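Appendix B.2, paired examples.
Example (i):
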Amino acid sequence: MSDGEAGILRAERGRVLVVDDDVDVCALLEVRLAGRGFEVARTTSAAAALDTLATAEVDVVLTDIKMARMSGASSPAARTCRWW
């Protein structure tokens, strides 16, 4: 598969923002999701996630619920999310 085809495949799978204050968890999720064809951005705080969401198109936010300062559940972005 060429680099161009990989980019098309990733765009079709979706864009995921991973938010977790544990850098190792972010890295693991990024590797696993990217390996399945998703385009992945990651941040280590809810505040940084809000900055990312202001400028990037994201299909799904995968967040840790318990983080220092502002949890994933209490962030302003969570108010517009659908919870599963």
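Example (ii):
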Amino acid sequence: MKSGSGVIFKTPCSLKKENVHNIMYIYSTKTITEVFLSQGKSFVVNQSLIELEKFLPTDFFHRVNRQMIVNLNFVKSISINHINQALLENGIKFNISRRRKKVFIEKMMNFK
């Protein structure tokens, strides 16, 4: 759910509104989806990445692999060789799937 520049997430106990500019990335395992914030905090949500992709603003967020959606504002660098990795400002490295790499690089090149 969108609300201005905020996004409303379903957590296990409540609805939580978070400013899109504070969300660094969202990571999912088979059982848990967690939202990581720029302040070093995180929280668990009761939504899959597929559900989250539907309402996150696509001008800021991109799904880079099966487990992760990143905020383009926090991407520091992209390795475009055979490794297909990127680095966030907080030092977290993540893999970019071959299938999603081309669109991700295009979005980063055009990102303002």
